[in-house]
Specification:
Helices cover 41% and strands 18% of the residues. It is α/β, with parallel strands linked by helices and 325 residues long. The strands form four sheets. Strands 5-4-1-6-7-8-12 form a seven-stranded parallel β-sheet, with helices on both faces. α1 crosses α7 and α6 runs parallel beside α9. The protein binds nicotinamide-adenine-dinucleotide.
Length: 325
């Protein structure tokens, strides 16, 4: 079993490769090789049984992507993308990377007769736009209101059509916002969802730029990795023609997140959150989906945390050796 991971140096990509190495097998076959590709350099060590190689390049270059599928990997995880803020700020780059990069991959696969890999594609709940129902169900239409959401929605449509034609066997995953994101605070508008938990758990202050009644749909990095592996294992016939699935998550208010932080780490942690409204971020977040019902994905065996405490514990275990500050 040969695996290709695009976006391998990213937050989920790195964790996905680590989990694949722990599992050692996928779709009932031993993994022999994993190749990770990203626009930035990355390194993950091979194990005794799995050869891991990494290379750097740009998915917007067709010849580069074509070379990546030359040895016909059995499963391709496509996570390479620029994130929403950058895609909104740089319209041309967003389409070049997120849309054309995705099509480059699909076309490179098509170019090889008789080659039908499983492709698992990272989509996003940004494919949906307001006005929203109380909970967005599996029948809600795609009405993205950002360039990033539009690029992800185009990827979903291509994936469904190329799969319908039998060119590959694709599954698209609309990921919830993944929280708690490890690393340093970033400038993404959604960054505060992670910052207000991650920083206090390391004894550091964090700023909350929106009101506590903001509700959003979230899952841990651990669950996100689980979604990709489960999608790779699924029988495509069971999924049927609707190839893009809204992943399970937890709808919780920011106030509920802070309460969970207090219950896990005490008020010494939650008191490190400074409430300082940023009208720009508050305005962006006001148009984001709040809640979903992910019935189709759940019926296909995808699962995620049922409480925000569980999301915090996943972060403590995976990033902080289980230790509280
Ligand atoms: N993290 C989330 O909350 C979330 C939510 C919804 C969807 N997603 C999607 O899931 C995927 C992975 O998310 P993540 O949080 O790991 O993001 P990330 O930004 O950490 O990783 C994405 C990776 O793609 C790489 N990349 C960017 N442009 C590239 C290019 N031109 N060629 C090759 N590689 C390129 C980046 O260098 C980065 O390492 C992305 O497609 C993202 O859009 C993430």
């Amino acid at each position: 079993m040969k695996i290709l991971v695009l976006g391998a140096a990213g937050m989920i990509g790195r964790k996905l490769i680590e989990r694949l190495l722990q599992h050692g097998s996928l779709r009932g076959q031993a993994i022999s090789k994993i190749h990770g590709f990203d626009v930035v350099e990355g390194a993950i060590a091979s194990t005794d049984s799995v050869e891991v190689t990494m290379s750097a390049g740009n998915i917007s270059e067709p010849t580069v992507v074509d070379a990546l599928v030359e040895d016909q990997p059995d499963v391709i995880f496509h996570l390479a993308a620029i994130v929403s803020g950058e895609a909104e700020a740089d319209f041309e780059k967003g389409y070049r990377v997120n849309m054309r990069g995705t099509q480059n991959l699909f076309d490179a696969v098509i170019a090889r007769t008789g080659y039908v890999p499983r492709i698992v594609y990272a989509s996003s709940i940004a494919v949906f736009g307001a006005p929203f129902p109380e909970a967005i169900d599996d029948d809600f239409h795609l009405t993205p209101l950002t360039s990033y959401g539009t690029q992800k929605a185009i990827g979903e449509l291509l994936l469904a059509d190329y799969s319908r034609k039998g060119h590959f066997d694709g599954i698209g995953l609309r990921l919830p916002t993944v929280v708690v994101r490890p690393g340093k605070p970033n400038l993404a508008a959604s960054g505060f969802f992670s910052n207000i938990i991650r920083e206090p758990l390391s004894g550091l202050p964090a700023v909350l730029p929106v009101s506590e009644d903001v509700m959003h749909w979230m899952a841990s990095p651990r669950s996100a990795v689980g979604f990709f592996i489960h999608a790779a294992e699924l029988d495509g016939d069971v999924v049927g023609p609707r190839r893009n699935l809204t992943m399970p998550g937890l709808a919780i208010t920011v106030g509920g997140m802070i309460e969970a932080l207090r219950s896990v780490a005490g008020s010494k942690a939650s008191d490190l959150i400074e409430h300082k409204t940023d009208p720009t971020i508050a305005g962006i977040v006001a148009n984001w989906p709040r809640n979903f019902s992910a019935d189709r994905a759940e019926s296909l065996g995808f699962s995620s945390e049922k409480s925000f405490e569980a999301i915090i514990h996943a972060h403590l275990e995976d990033e902080l050796d289980g230790k509280l500050p």
